[in-house]
Amino acid sequence: MKTTLITEGMHCNGCETRMVNALNQIEDIQNAKADAKSGKVVIKHAKEETIEEAKRLIVEIGFEVKE
């Protein structure tokens, strides 16, 4: 599966790197890409519940997930 989340709070390449590194620590995520300019985070994963875990993690590291 591929899911795109819209986030707020990423301002630079460092923010993108922090987001991707954190998300890639989740066991079910095969790949994550973040774009600070658009705020989009694209996540490749196998299970639907992984997205809820990813959203919680994004908030924990200081960003916001737009619903």
Automatic annotation (TrEMBL):
Pfam families: HMA. InterPro entries: HMA_dom (IPR006121), HMA_dom_sf (IPR036163). PROSITE patterns: HMA_2 (PS50846). GO terms for molecular function: metal ion binding. SUPFAM superfamilies: HMA, heavy metal-associated domain. Signal peptide: none annotated. CDD domains: HMA (cd00371). Residues 1-66 form the HMA domain. This is HMA domain-containing protein. It comes from Sphaerochaeta globosa (strain ATCC BAA-1886 / DSM 22777 / Buddy).
